[in-house]
UniProtKB/TrEMBL annotation:
<dbReference type="InterPro" id="IPR003797">
    <property type="entry name" value="DegV"/>
</dbReference>
<dbReference type="InterPro" id="IPR050270">
    <property type="entry name" value="DegV_domain_contain"/>
</dbReference>
<dbReference type="GO" id="GO:0008289">
    <property type="term" value="F:lipid binding"/>
</dbReference>
<dbReference type="Pfam" id="PF02645">
    <property type="entry name" value="DegV"/>
</dbReference>
<dbReference type="InterPro" id="IPR043168">
    <property type="entry name" value="DegV_C"/>
</dbReference>
<protein>
    <submittedName>
        <fullName>DegV family protein with EDD domain</fullName>
    </submittedName>
</protein>
<keyword id="KW-0446">Lipid-binding</keyword>
Length: 282
């Protein structure tokens, strides 16, 4: 039976939401795929971050990624139409994946009312947008009020990082040939950040110590507008936890966590990637 008071929440697997939260809050996750040669794995279903990164390290070929087929969205939206009055979908940046476009098209094909939002980002900030939407729903806000607020968040979301692999970022089309070549040639550590949905080169650094200093400096400049933030990483858990603890001591009024990059994100940035992510409150 349809419950007209409830909203179906839809996102993709790059949001790295906990299973408990998904089950308790009517969240439906559409997985992207990671392809190693002839083998394809659904992110979060067939492969997790815990077994992806060792496989990435031992693989002789770089994996590829694939967005969900539009048919998967159509089937999901037909199913949700029988249970919910409408839905809210938030997806990874449309500049990096066609998932957003597929979701928009599928909602029309299934004739299910879905407000589809381009997060212009991924990972921790994408997950936080879903958390915030559910929180507003639990506060009794209307569908229109929730959507209106969520649409302000993509332009407030931040993710700055130092990729572990310039080769993977370049081959995945996320970094230009010139930027990747120069970085590899002189062994630079690059800092990249999301800007209007695209991953852009922000700075070139020579040492890991300087990378940390720069990322902390960039965060400090925004810290007055931040209540929650996360150290995002690709299989460098100990370093991420050290950063988290240092930041928590520096900013006692901000809540810090660590977030492991999903396999799809890790495919493009490479093992060893580390950075900071948050959504400005103002």
């Amino acid at each position: 039976m349809k419950n007209n008071q409830e909203i179906a929440w839809i996102t993709d697997s790059t949001a790295t939401l906990p299973e408990k939260f998904i089950k308790e809050n009517h969240v439906y996750v559409v997985p992207l795929s990671i392809i190693f040669g002839d083998e394809s794995y659904l992110e979060g279903v067939d492969i997790t971050a815990e077994n992806f990164y060792p496989k990435l390290a031992s693989s002789k070929v770089l994996p590829k990624t694939s967005q969900p087929a539009i048919g998967e969205f159509v089937e999901l939206y037909k199913e949700l139409k029988r249970k919910y009055k409408r839905g809210i979908a938030i997806h990874a940046s449309s500049s990096l994946t066609g998932t957003y476009q597929s979701s928009v098209a599928a909602s029309s094909m299934a004739e299910f009312e879905v407000e589809v939002i381009d997060s212009k980002i991924g990972s921790y900030p994408l997950g936080q947008m879903i958390y915030k939407g559910v929180e507003l729903q639990n506060q009794g806000k209307s569908y229109e009020e929730i959507v209106s607020h969520l649409r302000t968040l993509p332009d407030k979301a931040n993710l700055i990082m130092s990729p572990g692999s310039l080769e993977q970022l370049h081959k995945g089309g996320r970094l230009s040939t010139t930027q990747a070549f120069i970085g590899s040639l002189i062994r630079l550590k690059l800092i990249v950040r999301f800007d209007d949905g695209k991953v852009l080169l922000f700075d070139k650094i020579r040492t890991d110590k300087k990378v940390k200093e720069k990322l902390f400096q960039l965060f400090d400049e925004a810290s007055d507008m931040v209540k929650e933030a996360s150290v995002i990483h690709a299989n460098v858990k100990e370093t991420a936890e050290t950063w988290r603890d240092e930041l928590a001591a520096m900013y006692p009024n901000i809540s810090f966590t660590t977030t492991t990059f999903s396999p799809v994100a890790g495919t493009h940035t490479g093992q060893g990637t580390i950075g900071l992510a948050w959504i400005n409150e103002k």
